Amino acid sequence: MKEILCFGDSNTYGLIPKTGGRYDRDTRWTGILEKRLYEKDYRIVEEGLCGRTTIFEDELREGRRGADLLPTLLESHAPLDRVILMLGTNDCKTYYSASPELIGLGIEKLLQQIKNADKNIKILLISPIKLGEEVWKPEFDPEFNEHSVEVSKQLKEVYRKIAEKYGCDFLAASDVAEPSEDDREHLNPEGHKRLAEAILQSVAR
User: Fold this and answer.
1) Average pLDDT, rounded, for the chain
2) With 90 as the cut, is the pLDDT of residue 152 above it?
């Protein structure tokens, strides 16, 4: 059976907007993939973590720096057929003051880690959904600001160029899904469904 590692943040974990709960396996995009691909001899390894970044250290929560954990996961789940990588939203937080290009460098580090682990692993790089307008309001997530939203809008083009550079498949989540109106940050059930369908088309190629 082939293994697909899905490495991401809360939108891979399946966080329910505003509640802090988690969508069930049949709702989150990783679970939809698992159900649809099982008969094709694929197993999905879910590795989504709320607050995860590419290379930035969260001083309030341990273990959020993706580059610290990814090499271990690549080894523990080997051999892998594919890695689906979707990170970058948390890198947009005001605390990190990161430009789209700097976030892109973080993505490149992760891609290098994957290729160093096994050059034959297929990679699908996904640029995240855009942050919603006014996501920074107290009732949503004040860890972001207006600049965060603008940075999130630029990640699609930055990631697209990186995917070309590394020979990866590429998908822009923002082309198929939007953040929920409930928190302007996370996918709703329809968003998870649409993202899963787009990923399935990529995997089928």
Assistant:
1) 96
2) yes
Q: Rounded distance, CA 123 to CA 34, Å?
A: 17
Residue 203 has pLDDT above 90, yes or no: no
Spatial separation of the C-alpha atoms in residues 21 and 27, rounded to whole Å: 13
**DSSP 3-state assignment of 84?**
strand
pTM (predicted TM-score): 0.97
Strands 2-8 and 122-127 turn out to be unpaired
Measured CA to CA, the distance from residue 181 to residue 148 in angstroms comes to: 17
The CA dihedral of 15, 66, 8, 62, to the nearest 10 degrees, is -10
Q: How many CB atoms lie within 10 A of CB 121?
A: 18
| pLDDT number for residue 36 | 95
Nearest to 88 by CA among 180, 172, 201, 188: 172
Per the listing, tokens 């080997």 go with 78
Q: Which pLDDT tens digit goes with each residue over 43-65? A: 999 999 999 999 999 988 999 99
Q: Which residues pair with 126 in a beta bridge?
A: 171
DSSP H or E run through 124:
strand 122-127
Cis omega (within 30 of 0) for bond into 79: yes
